[in-house]
Amino acid sequence: YTSHVTGSMSLLADAVYLREWITAAVALISVLCFVVGAAHSGWVVLWTQQKRFRGSFGFSMWLEAVYLLIFGLFGLTTSQWNIGMGNMVFPSLALFLLCFIMGMHNTVMTLLSGGAIRSTHMTGTATD
Q: pLDDT of the chain along its 128 residues, tens only?
């Protein structure tokens, strides 16, 4: 569900209907992280273009690479932890970081293509 907002929105709707509030909260936070990542990437690209950097898209992709490195290190360290209380298991914060990164990536591809490469369903809507 990290790269496609449609899946998270479907999960959110199902969880609300089934009154699984923790699952609904995780799905909602995932979508919000995706949207914030998209906004962050759009801001980085526009800011670097305003400052007349030669590689505005490259800078955003470089930031993505740094965040992916942090994601990898974060995922490696949290795999050693048992995060949960009874039957409730909370996801690693790495999930939300990955949603943020996917939002960044979606925005860069949309801006690079001039909107010609559209992502599927709600993902494109969330990025726009």
A: 555 677 788 888 999 999 999 889 988 998 899 889 989 988 988 888 888 877 778 888 888 889 888 888 876 665 555 555 555 555 667 788 888 988 888 887 777 766 655 555 555 555 55
CA–CA distances in Å: residue 125 to residues 10, 25, 110: 14, 20, 11
DSSP states of 79-108: TTS---BTTB-PPPHHHHHHHHHHHHHHHH
Which residues make beta-bridge pairs with 85?
88
Angle of helix 56-78 relative to helix 93-113, nearest 10 degrees, comes to 160
Q: How many CB atoms lie within 10 A of CB 63?
A: 16
Residue with tokens 């740094």: 66
